[in-house]
Structure formats: C-alpha cells, structure tokens
Design brief:
Distance between the termini: 34 Å
Oligomer: single chain
Number of domains: 2
Structural class: alpha/beta
Radius of gyration: 23 Å
CATH topology of the largest domain: Rossmann fold
CATH class of the largest domain: Alpha Beta
CATH architecture of the largest domain: 3-Layer(aba) Sandwich
Order of helices and strands: HHEEHEEHEEHHEHEHEEHEH
Largest sheet: 6 strands, mixed
Length: about 325
C-alpha cells in the first residue's frame, strides 16, 4: 500500500510527488549548469569523446610499420604477409567510462511521508547522474528492476544515451500497476544483483539507487564480486519516517484513494523498528567503507541537486 502524508519539506523539484514526467527530468539539466534541451533536440544525436592518443582500445585507427616497443599482440599478420614487413594495428583509446545506473522500482520504493516517493527521488537522481556523466563524456546505461521485470539499457554516448534513460524511467510499467496489489517479491535482491553482475562490463561505474530492502549476506557476496571489476557506489534512499518515528500520537495517511489511521506510541515495537533501520544503515555503511566503496544517503525530502553537489565537493562521486 502506498502511504502519503500531506506535509512536505524543502524545495519542490518535480511537479508531482508520486510520478515522474519527461519534462521534469529534462529540466534538471538546467540546475546543474547545462542549457535546456528539448526531446526533439536530443533525438538521433549520439556523440561522445574520443582521444587522439594511439594505444590499446576498442576502435581501430590505422596500420603502420612495427616500431620497437609495440605490443606484439597488435601485429597485423595479413598486412605483414602482404607487404613482407611487420606492421602493427593502432587503436583509438577509449577515454570515456561506461556508467550503469541500477534503479530500484520494487514496491517498497513507492512510499513516502514527506517529499516524494522513493521511486520518484531515485529517478530524479538518476537523471542528474546521467546529465553529469554526459558532461564528462561518459556513456550512460541503466538496469531497471522491479518484482515484475528487469530492463537493461546498454551504455550509449552523447545526449541520445541520456534521453534513452529518461524515457525508460518515465515509460516503465511500474507507474501504472494497481496500487493495492499485495507486495509479494518474486525474487530476492541477491538474485537481481547476480543478473546485474552479468550485465555490467569490467571497468564500468555501477551506481545502485535503492532502499536496499532485502540486504543480506548473499547480497554482500554478490556486490563484492561485482566490485572486483567495477567502480561501485551505493545510493541509499529512505523516508524520514523509516529513520525516525514522529512524536507519539495519531496520524492520518492516504494513498490518494483510501485513508489509514496510524497510532505511534513509544512502545517496545517502535523501538525495535528504529533499531532495525539503524542496523540496516550501519551495515550498508560498513560494507561500503570496508571495501573502499562509496555510500551516499538520500532522504525523500532532500534536494537531490544540493545533495549531489555537496557529495562532489566532499570528494564523493
């Protein structure tokens, strides 16, 4: 069940706290210093950065006579046989880094008491990270996952890669599913991350945007393996209600169609609830810190632009 309280805090970044629109995600580019772009301006553009440096890479550049110090694995044996002189293949070195955004659209992400749904907040953050990657010349891809499906977007260069991601976020069928369907996970988070491991190419920057509900030992093992060949970062999104219960009293919440009365009391159950969340957060932080990975916290009522640039100034990316 989606819970929504009317009280909000901070600057409104999107026109809706419970949905995302393409126009909102495009507008976010202006907040990080880029010029506004319309969807038609982005269509068909697939530019990127390529170094003029000649070295080992993915894109063939030319063949030239072998020189001392050249990698013997790059010898072009066909040209060598034809010209009776050893020749070496040269390549454009790929300087951009693939960025893979793993975005959690499971049902617990469609919850908030302040600000916006966790799913909305991570969608905004994903758009910001994509615009930021575009500015660096990196390729952008995505791995969207929910109980119903997984969707993979191969990293693409240029503005076309960003628009591919933004449209996938907006068009994902999770935004249209019935709000009152019971939450029955079809597979564990660990199994989802195993699939992510198969998708992510070595050397990629993999940023996981999630509340990490379902975190366990198997998840840690999977992420440890993923982190051996990828630059891994964890963005932990949560609602303030999850971290700190409001003062004792009765609260009215709604999903837009039905109301729910919630009584908060300073009970043993309430203390257990808070302790469980605190332990969950500490475990995430300990995992990231112990393996030299990035951990960033994002509340549903935070301004993701201010938070992202605060992390950048503090050395996190």
């Amino acid at each position: 069940m989606r819970l929504w309280a009317s009280r909000r805090k901070g600057e409104a970044v999107s026109s809706s706290p419970v949905r995302i629109e393409l126009s909102d995600l495009l507008t976010l580019r202006q907040r990080i210093g880029g010029a506004p772009l319309l969807p038609q301006q982005l269509a068909g553009q697939d530019g990127g950065l390529r170094s003029r440096f000649r070295g080992r890479g993915m894109e063939f550049a030319e063949v030239r006579p072998y020189q001392a110090g050249d990698d013997v694995r790059a010898i072009d044996w066909r040209v060598t046989a034809r010209r009776q002189k050893v020749h070496t293949k040269l390549f454009h070195e790929e300087r951009e880094q693939p960025v893979l955004l793993a975005i959690d659209y499971r049902r617990p992400m469609f919850f908030a008491t302040r600000g916006c749904f966790k799913a909305v907040q991570v969608s905004r953050l994903a758009a910001l990270l994509a615009w930021q990657a575009l500015g660096r010349g990196d390729r952008v891809g995505a791995f969207l996952f929910s109980e119903e499906q997984h969707r993979e977007l191969r990293p693409r260069s240029g503005k076309g890669g960003v628009l591919q991601l933004l449209r996938a976020l907006v068009d994902d069928p999770v935004w249209e599913r019935p709000p009152h369907r019971p939450f029955v996970p079809q597979q564990r988070l660990a199994e989802t991350l195993q699939r992510l491991h198969r998708v992510a190419r070595p050397g990629s920057r993999v940023l996981i945007l999630s509340d990490f509900i379902g975190w366990d030992d198997e998840v840690e093992k999977g992420l440890t393996l993923l982190g051996r060949h990828c630059d891994l970062g964890l963005w932990h999104c949560f609602d303030p209600f999850e971290a700190s219960l409001p003062p004792t009293g009765d609260y009215r919440l709604s999903d837009g169609e039905r109301d729910l009365s919630l009584q908060v009391a300073n009970s043993e159950a309430a203390q257990d609830y808070l302790q469980n969340f605190a332990e969950h957060t500490v475990r995430l932080q300990r995992f990231a810190r112990g393996r030299g990975r990035r951990y960033c916290a994002l509340q549903t009522d935070d301004d993701p632009v201010a938070l992202l640039y605060g992390q950048m100034q503090g050395g996190a990316r």
